[in-house]
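User:
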Amino acid sequence: MLDKWSFEALDLKEILERVDTFSELGKKYRSQIKPWLPGDEADLEDYYLLIAEVIEKISGNEVLQDKLKGELYHLKDIAFSINRLGKDIQIHELFEIKQFCYFYERLRLHLAKNRFSSVELFPHLRKVFTLLDPEEQEVPTFKICNSYSAELAHIREQIASISRKKKINQQLYRQEIVEELGLSKIEEKFIISNINHDLKMKVENSPYFGIQEENFANTIYYIKYPDAIKDFEFQLNTLFIKQEEVSNEVINKLSLELEKYQDILNKALQIIGKFDDILGKSIFALAYNCCLPSITQEYKVKIIQAVNIPVYDALKRVAIKYQKIDLMLDNKMNILVGANMAGKSTALTTLGQFSYLVQHGFPLPAQKCEIPLFDYILVTGDEANQKSIDLSSFGKELVRINSYYSRSGKGLFILDEFARGTNPKEGNALSKAMFETLNTKNNFCFCATHFNSPLEIEGVSHFTIPGITEEDFQEIRNQNQINPDNRLKALHKKMKYNLIKITGQKETPQAGLMIAELLGTDEEIIKKAKEYLR
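Assistant: Predicted structure:
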């Protein structure tokens, strides 16, 4: 729907990085979400209603925001484990499922307590959790409890009993060795230095020890227990094998019982991903004073007090106040003319950003917005920045437009200074021909140009941006600023970026000479340029 160059030209990455998700599932959901296209208006409106409710609930309630984010953080993508239910599942996968159900139900409880109507979309997983928590401990950890199997409980009792007997008999045997050999204490394994000949002889001449390892400095000994004690070890090993078998039977039984909840668990994964996506977008909406748009099927755009976030941040870094703009485009073909630096590109990219964000269900940084959906979006501009060695910027621009020109569906064409890369005479002709032809197709176009001929096209809307006036020019001159950077800042402050619809006689606004003069261009150059304009 949007090629790589258009995506980069609109600085969308910089915007999207500001919209968080808080779980693996949210990140996965957002990466897989399909854009809403013409025909999906009703479905998208329903999606925005979900966002509207979340915004209402969390607005001014940072405690609730933190609780929701905290529960989502613990919700992992356990699709692999869920889809193995009914098969040879492992105990750690049952742990994952129980942990998911634990934090899922906690999230559900927060939504219910705060009366989110969307909680009705969340399936209950309490039965799944109960199967994995038979002792009602209400913890996210999982173990195979004795209550799962009487046989398993009996085996564990035997293991505990024999282990105690083994330990007692080993202690008595070690005490016997200590008393007989006159040692202070003895361990299962111990080291004697080879220079301690008396102790070595005492140990090696007794029937109680064996040599495990010997080197030039030390000898490591171990206790040789009698067969009666070794028999405890044999019994334990037999019981451990049996315990493993019965535990696997319990796991397989649980796997089969949980298999019937496979669909509902997968549904829970999806709803968590969607809710996480919506929560992130809602927090973004509050942070940037966003609106939720009205989706129209008409060929018109109405955006009030729009903010181009990347431009806003760039100006903020250099202490220049951002001017919000209105985009009131009421025609299939909208042509924008204005001086350099007057904000034409910002107006174009703002529409492109908003169109993409709407396609993907994002709130919009504006006071109000009415906008249609598009099947695809094409943005052209500085193609010279594309990494290619075989085409000029004009050639690259044409190749990209040609690839979209005959596409079916409802397209948005954003053409920034089309044909700027060719000579003015041909550029005038080509731009007029391009705009006239696009106007006959099923597209919505917002184009900026510095050529005059597009102003002659009938039946389209023409706009201008005031930019800087003669009065502004004189005021900046009177400030006697010598530093070009200071003049540039003064120029930005005086620029007016609102769109004005042109009626009657139409001419391309001219402010290039004023800007050139303000920025310190040589007086001789300015003088000659003015003479040529006469």
